[in-house]
Design brief:
The chain is mainly α. The protein contains seven helices and no strands. Helix 5 crosses helix 6 (103-121). The structure holds zinc ion (ZN). Zinc ion binds at residues 15, 17-18, 20-21, 27, 32. The site of zinc ion (ZN) has 7 residues, from loops.
Length: 141
């Protein structure tokens, strides 16, 4: 949509993944079927309940999950940014390489990549892999 608004002639502005909507930032990264299912699973992983719909702005601002600690906010930020990065990477692999992705494998990729990024950058707290994988919400306090 943003490229089309700027006058760039595109073959289509439809979502290349589902073809059910125009390809906007929110659609591609949050509301498209696979992206939406992926966010639901990420929120389940972090123990976040009751979120009916997500948009990219709220996710990147950390509005969906509140933490009382700065470390917790940064850890959640690592997860959301990793998720957005991987959804966009997968979208590009589909468009340019015709390579399909699936939600369970992608969730696992997000868990691994966000753990790598969080543990490399977080010097305030020791984070064990098992805790990251099975009880990440306990890291928010
Ligand atoms: Zn779509």
């Amino acid at each position: 949509m943003e490229l089309d608004k700027r006058g760039i002639d595109l073959h289509s502005v439809r979502c290349p993944i589902c073809d059910n909507d125009t390809e906007s930032v929110d659609h591609s990264l949050a509301t498209c079927n696979d992206a939406s299912e992926l966010w639901r699973r990420v929120l389940d992983w972090w123990g976040v309940c009751g979120v009916q719909s997500v948009n990219v702005t709220d996710l990147l601002k950390g509005c969906v999950l509140n933490s009382s600690s700065d470390v917790g906010k940064r850890l959640w930020q690592a997860v959301t940014w990793t998720c957005v990065y991987i959804i966009w990477k997968n979208r590009n692999q589909l468009v340019f390489k015709k390579k399909r992705w699936n939600v369970p494998v992608t969730l696992n990729e997000i868990q691994i990549k966000s753990y790598e990024w969080a543990t490399k950058r977080c010097r305030d707290k020791t984070i064990e892999w098992e805790r990251w994988l099975h009880n990440p919400n306990s890291l928010l306090m």
